[in-house]
Amino acid sequence: MRVRIYTTRWCGDCHNAKRFLKERGIEYEEIDIEEKESAAEYVMKINGGKRKVPTFEIDGRAFALSPYDERRLRAELGLNS
Asked: Which part of the chain is the Glutaredoxin domain (predicted)?
């Protein structure tokens, strides 16, 4: 499974999402949209012109998780518990 998470340094929801992934040993690539303009443009394209973070890309499926929702993240990752 390939997981990318688009974030900013100041985003509390991003910190919660990354902690969830780390606690479960799920590897991910983090992309800070404030450091990479093309990433910010991608996030805005996915989210109707809004810079919503965290935005995830999991095996090619993209979605925003703002506000953070652990139940939805579990479902998107295919985790049952």
From this structure: 3-61
pLDDT of residue 80: 76
pLDDT attached to residue 81: 59
Length of the chain: 81
Helix, strand, coil % (nearest 5) of the chain? 35, 20, 40
Sequence-separated (6 or more) residues with CB below 8 Å from residue 36: none
Q: What are phi and psi of 24, to 5 degrees?
A: -105, 5
Domain of 55: which CATH number? 3.40.30.10
Q: Range of 25's domain?
A: 3-77
Enter the tokens of residue 20: 């969830």
